Amino acid sequence: MAFPIGTRAGMRAQATCLVQEGDQPLTFAWQKDGKPLDGLRNVRPSQLDAFTSILVIELASADHSGNYTCAATNPAQTSYANAQLTVSVPPAWVVEPSSANVALSGQVALHCLAKGFPNPTVVWRKETTTGDFSGVATGESGVDGWENGTLSVSRAERRHEGRYLCEANNGVGAGLSKVVSLTVNEPPWFGVRSQRQQVVVGATATLTCEAHGDIPLTLVWTRDSSPLPALPRYEVSEREMEKGRLSELVLHTTHVGDSGTYVCTATNAHGFLTADFHLLVQDVPGSPLGLGVSEEGSRHLTLSWTPPEDSNSPISAYLVSFTPQDTQLFPSGFFIGPREVTVEGDQQQVRIEGLIPATSYVFTVVAENRVGRSKLSSPLRVTTHEEAPSGHPQNVRVVAVSSTALQVSWEPPLDNLTHGTVLGYYLGFKDDRHLFSISESEGGAYNFTTVGVDGAGVTTATLAGLRPHAHYSVVLQAFNSRGAGPMSPPAKATTLEDKPSAPPGHLTCESVSSRSLVVTWKPPAARHINGVVTNYRILYSAISDHDGGRGKSKVSEGLRATLTELLPWTNYSITVTAATRAGEGVASAPLPCVTNQDGALPMLSVSDVPAGMSTFIVGGLGEWGIVGTITLALLSGGS
């Protein structure tokens, strides 16, 4: 049983089911794809004779494609015959392409879905400048083609606009094709949607609104959601551009009240969009208010004030000026003139340092922003407290007198800076152990001791119990009944060197030949060097008695030494000491080290060896002695 090959939609098809052998009576039944033919249109089974049944399809369609089964039954059994029918169907639209509009930068899909058998192939083409249609390059420039025939654009641009041709073909019939148009609409857009501009009072501000999009394009200005005020100082002008429209809003002789948000609204047939222009008109600040003293002392005052009203420009700094009320002279003869202190703009108080005790000052403050400075505040007059000496001891000198002591000498502070009778001094010292401190603050505090005045003029003191060859900083403070004055600038000195108090470390030895050794070591711990290492001495002697116990030494300026002219296969005891200018320090623990065996001895003659003897005397060793393991080879011929 078989259907004709090449059946197309609209043609007739039939299959004949013939029973070649078998008894009557026979009955025939037809199925398609395992189901009865009920409901299948244009299909008619008929029995030609007792042994033949014919299935006729009067008008073939895609629904008729499938596997048909003829079942012939008699009282003995049922037999089956199968035939496959394939109906070729030309393409037909499922979703017919249609023209589309899309906003610039928007997404759009052109659908083209066809059915048929075999499945149609869908191809998109775009019209060129010559009027021909060429294939659309998918996967590039935001254009993608999908298996269902849809052409999508993820971000529409002007170049995507044009006429597109969709073709659906499966080789059956003429195929389908349709031309559609894609129009890219350009709603209003701005290159910059938000701008900020700052001007000073009285200046001219120009706000430029540049909009793009399809024409006609209109631009309208508003301020804080309201129309612009009808002021002659506000001037609006517009002009066309190649790809849009430009509007300028000019504000002449600006006031602080002109500050605000100006909105430019662009509108065309495809929508509208706004751009914001934030204008800030700034003025100099007002004078600070309420200048007063919140805390005072002999050498400092803390002033506070209230900021002025907002002038649309943040306060960048406050400048506090102060001048002694009475004319005073420094010892050098220079007049104490006005001083000025700058304070950050977000602060409303300042601690004024470096004042003179028991002195009356006049203070004023001004505010400053990017526009300029305010007027002076109301003046404030304040007198500082009395205090301890403000001068430090002079001409501090420190001299090393031993490896553990420093001699300190100095002169009293200047008379006009003592502010009373000097009762004594605080002598401070610290070890500048930067190499050994975990942090700079460790060991950074001074150790103070009190020393008395030995009379007018130069005073002296001795610091004892110090570390050898250590760098010390020494300071002095004069004190009176009100307290101590400032420290003198640190005077630095270094104690004298001493011998190292620890041996070199990590002593190693390596035999490089039968007559030489290489010895290496590390310097002693830095805190035990007690000076600058000038050299290292290596002491070595043979442990055996062959050398008579005589020791030798070698000096090295580095951390490595090669010992030569040694005995082969000999155990040596090695120690190393470090030396400074003060002498040699502690020796390291002895390190044993063995030289290599010597090479082969000269060929020696062994004669008169009785047969069967395994022990005999070797003569002729001469001056070598036993320098290793001796291996003898007995050669043939009695040698």
Automatic annotation (TrEMBL):
<dbReference type="Pfam" id="PF07679">
    <property type="entry name" value="I-set"/>
</dbReference>
<dbReference type="Pfam" id="PF13927">
    <property type="entry name" value="Ig_3"/>
</dbReference>
<feature type="domain" description="Ig-like">
    <location>
        <begin position="188"/>
        <end position="280"/>
    </location>
</feature>
<dbReference type="GO" id="GO:0030154">
    <property type="term" value="P:cell differentiation"/>
</dbReference>
<dbReference type="Pfam" id="PF00041">
    <property type="entry name" value="fn3"/>
</dbReference>
<dbReference type="InterPro" id="IPR003961">
    <property type="entry name" value="FN3_dom"/>
</dbReference>
<feature type="domain" description="Ig-like">
    <location>
        <begin position="91"/>
        <end position="183"/>
    </location>
</feature>
<keyword id="KW-1133">Transmembrane helix</keyword>
<keyword id="KW-0732">Signal</keyword>
<dbReference type="InterPro" id="IPR036179">
    <property type="entry name" value="Ig-like_dom_sf"/>
</dbReference>
<feature type="domain" description="Fibronectin type-III">
    <location>
        <begin position="503"/>
        <end position="598"/>
    </location>
</feature>
<dbReference type="GO" id="GO:0016020">
    <property type="term" value="C:membrane"/>
</dbReference>
<dbReference type="InterPro" id="IPR036116">
    <property type="entry name" value="FN3_sf"/>
</dbReference>
<keyword id="KW-0677">Repeat</keyword>
<protein>
    <recommendedName>
        <fullName>Down syndrome cell adhesion molecule-like protein Dscam2</fullName>
    </recommendedName>
</protein>
<dbReference type="InterPro" id="IPR013098">
    <property type="entry name" value="Ig_I-set"/>
</dbReference>
<dbReference type="InterPro" id="IPR007110">
    <property type="entry name" value="Ig-like_dom"/>
</dbReference>
<keyword id="KW-0812">Transmembrane</keyword>
<feature type="domain" description="Fibronectin type-III">
    <location>
        <begin position="287"/>
        <end position="387"/>
    </location>
</feature>
<dbReference type="GO" id="GO:0098609">
    <property type="term" value="P:cell-cell adhesion"/>
</dbReference>
<feature type="domain" description="Fibronectin type-III">
    <location>
        <begin position="392"/>
        <end position="498"/>
    </location>
</feature>
<keyword id="KW-0472">Membrane</keyword>
<dbReference type="InterPro" id="IPR003599">
    <property type="entry name" value="Ig_sub"/>
</dbReference>
<keyword id="KW-1015">Disulfide bond</keyword>
<feature type="region of interest" description="Disordered">
    <location>
        <begin position="485"/>
        <end position="506"/>
    </location>
</feature>
<dbReference type="InterPro" id="IPR013783">
    <property type="entry name" value="Ig-like_fold"/>
</dbReference>
<dbReference type="GO" id="GO:0009653">
    <property type="term" value="P:anatomical structure morphogenesis"/>
</dbReference>
<dbReference type="InterPro" id="IPR003598">
    <property type="entry name" value="Ig_sub2"/>
</dbReference>
<feature type="domain" description="Ig-like">
    <location>
        <begin position="1"/>
        <end position="88"/>
    </location>
</feature>
